[in-house]
Design a protein that fits this description.
With about 220 residues, this protein is mostly beta strands. The chain contains two helices and 13 strands; from the N terminus they run ααβββββββββββββ.
Length: about 220
Amino acid sequence: MYRIDNATAATALPAPASTGPRPNGYFTKGNPSTGTPATIVDDDWANAVQEEICNVIEGAGLTLSKTDNKQLYNAITANLNNRYPLICSRATLRDDVTHQGIIPTKIVFNNVTQNIGDRYDPIEGRFIAPFRGVYRVFCALCVRTPAGTTVGANNALYLNGQLISSDAIEAFGAEPTIDLFDELILNENDYLEIFSSSTTAENIKVLANNRTRFIVTLVRKL
């Protein structure tokens, strides 16, 4: 995109004239048989269109180029990516994790299947927000309880080391799945972790299968 540059171009943007006799009109090629004239494309309209396009391009930090006809597309894409960047982390377990009874155990999802934005740390087992925004969190834990016992298992979401939400289920020698869903506002460098525990001294296992997973996605940037 470029601004008009021929020998007849003005060196400064002229002030537009007052509103014409037919505001919010449309172009016509005219009709000689009825005496309807074709629409005149004047400098006010041409300058308005030119500046609307140039302002989007320059507002995205690009320099106008006469040889690049994709600048408007690139500017819009850049603006959308800045407002709605793609952040998505998905992870599962490589191995079963055993609870130590009622003591909360951090679940480190060490099998990363998707990490767009590189915000999930599989060593520390935490998602770190890159900027302030609304994030959607889903965690499912498939647990195995001791046979012949009724044990409550807990799936808990921690924000910056503090419990913010949880869900629990009681199971009798089964392998239920505990689902936890939340949507919350995170600030830059806030971090999320998943902990699990049982309601008794009995140890239970979080199973490394396709039902156990941790997913965090960005809904929108604030």
